[in-house]
Amino acid sequence: MKSKLVIFWFRRDLRLEDNTGLQQALASGYPVLPMFIFDTEILDRLVNKYDRRVDYIQQALTSVNSALQDAHTALQTYHGKPIEIFEQVTAAYDVQAVYCNKDYEPDAIKRDDTVRNYLLHKNIPFHTYKDHVIFEQSEITKIDGTPYTVYTPYAKKWLSELKPEHYAAKSVDLTPWQKVDHSSIITLADLGFKKTDLTFQAPEIDLNIIMDYDKYRNFPALNRTTHLGIALRFGTISIRKCVAFALQYNATWLSELIWREFFTQILHHFPKVVDTCFKAKYEQINWRNNEHEFELWCKGETGYPIVDAGMRQLNLTGFMHNRVRMVVASFLCKHLLIDWRWGEAYFAEKLDDYDLSANNGNWQWAAGCGCDAAPYFRIFNPTAQTQKFDKDLAYVKTWYPEYDLQLTPPIVDHTFARERALRAYKQALQDTEIQ
Prior knowledge:
Elements: E1 4-10, H1 20-26, E2 32-39, H2 40-43, H3 52-68, E3 76-80, H4 82-92, E4 94-101, H5 106-121, E5 126-129, H6 151-161, H7 164-167, H8 188-191, H9 207-211, H10 213-216, H11 229-234, H12 239-249, H13 251-269, H14 291-299, H15 305-317, H16 322-335, H17 340-350, H18 356-367, H19 382-389, H20 394-399, H21 414-434
Parallel strand pairs: 1-2, 1-4, 2-3, 4-5
Helix pairs in contact: 4-5, 6-13, 12-13, 13-18, 15-16, 16-18, 17-18
Cofactor: FAD; (6R)-5,10-methylene-5,6,7,8-tetrahydrofolate
Protein name: Deoxyribodipyrimidine photo-lyase
Organism: Sphingobacterium alkalisoli
């Protein structure tokens, strides 16, 4: 006789505590078999097999699996296409239902629709729950029910709707598991990936950083940001825990968490932003797209120390300070007139905390073509940004110690580049009006 059980499918929620979908699965009345799928349709697109994100997932899952050992069960890990894995699992077990938390990215929605339809034909319910955000999809809208496309009114409504139950931790009874022999999860080598320099640690919120977040977050040399981006991306920390903490200690950090939700709902309502400008008129910009200059930007050889330091930090570590991200993005789009999509794709390849909605939203913001875009005529001056946020060059010296040898002359003059960008943007808007 096949075992009757329900499945909990881990995805962007790699933790046992405060996990909505897992809570519901464990309360189903059936033993729960936990599983994770290393999706080949995602992994096969990663050309560089030294990828800290895959390593992070593998280590986080190992941590979850270790915690499950005391419950006499094990996390079942698979490598393949999700639909094919579910064909295998439903053949092996008498699956009463599948539980998981929602993922709002377009490809994930298509994947889940495929799995849902397959399970429907087998009369197996597919239950999904909100866990990645406090408010999802259409929970924060204008009076007429349409989505907000500007952050400030969205944030105001978000805060007005927030109640304690929205950020209360989900209690999870970790007892009703399907008993299976404990086993290790799939290794990086089995996945075709290499071990990186990353060491997973259970994420913690640093009170000292949060208390002074508003004072020091813009100064990259101080390293006074949370570094929780990757934990929120893969769900090794609960968004409810973060919001509860931010409400108590720092409104500025809370605003950053609301930005995350703002961009998530923009991606859901306007999936076209994945590869097109939110504001269609900016598709008329005559990008220069000079491949040599793009390569210099990628390598951190633009001749602007803060830009080059940021790119070198990214290339070496998979991380870049948020203030510097804005500077290097503005530089690419405005100074070099290179399409924001080139920069977004490079960040998607390199950032350990890469998140589609946030990466896309922030790049469109920098390019001036997004939903809540900075005006196109706002062009960061890298020198002025350095004087304001790294006046002693501590950040620059850390990531680009040879900057003062003048090995790399400036790739373009700031004043010239600024005027060129303004002309290009104005011309694009004029062409749109004529059409």
